Amino acid sequence: MRRLTLRQFRVFEAVARHLSFTRAAEELHLSQPAVSMQVRGIEKILGLPLTEQFGKKIFLTEAGREVLYASQSITARLDDLQANLAQLRGMDSGQLNIAVTTTVSAVATTILASFRGKHPKVSIHLDVSNRESVLGLLAANRIDLAIMGQVPEGLDLQATRFMDNPLVVIAPPDHPLARKKKVSIQDLASAPFLVRETGSGTRGAMERWFADKGMEILTSMEMSSNEAIKQAVQAGLGLGILSLQTLEQELALKRLAVVAVEGFPIMRHWYIVHRSDKRLSPVAQAFKSFVLEAAR
Ligand code: PGA
Asked: What's the pTM value of the predicted model, to 2 decimals?
């Protein structure tokens, strides 16, 4: 019987991830016919088609999804093996693949910097994106660890809380609400808000908080960056709700003020997260312990 090869799995995994032969070929630095040939090779051995095409779109067949599942676990096992063997050659030659959400990136880079100070030869790959994308990287088993807000229930993830993350309402210092000693939630009803994009944890937490109070806020603009929100609030385009940890400079320089809204801050927390089935490499394990230790 002819056997499936690792190369076929790797090529198919890229096709399935991109749902495109062209993009898989680009990623793997192969020609498109070479990619098609590898996938055809698997189909021939299995006797089943792995992809189907409707119009210009490619979809995975049920067999395709099975092969994808198998190739993801095989590649993840091989990556783990490689990382662990690297560790046997010495802890400091390891690689750490980590993803953090935008809002925690400043805190995370400070922690990473002191970790690297202790382990100068560890190479670090850092992805910074919003909550939804970080959850996607965990689901695809493409990272060792993530630092992010509370993870949704029902996912096979191990999340350890290590730090508070208070969200506050911000305004320009000369805004009438910024001058009030006590601001009620009703005072916010007619104020336009600048909000993060859908998929952001900050946005989700803010929406849940107002929904709990039976209130909907007026959104004037949606932006995919905390920096852009801070600038727009300074420019007087509306109020914002952001993590206090992203506001240190603007508050110190009195470019922004925290509005004293009743019930605020919304208290969130930062977690260090990995898949429950992940065998953490010694470097990843050391980083996790370092984060928890630093928080203590
Ligand atoms: P984000 O981060 O708003 O940048 O997505 C918050 C979170 O991790 O929940």
From this structure: 0.72
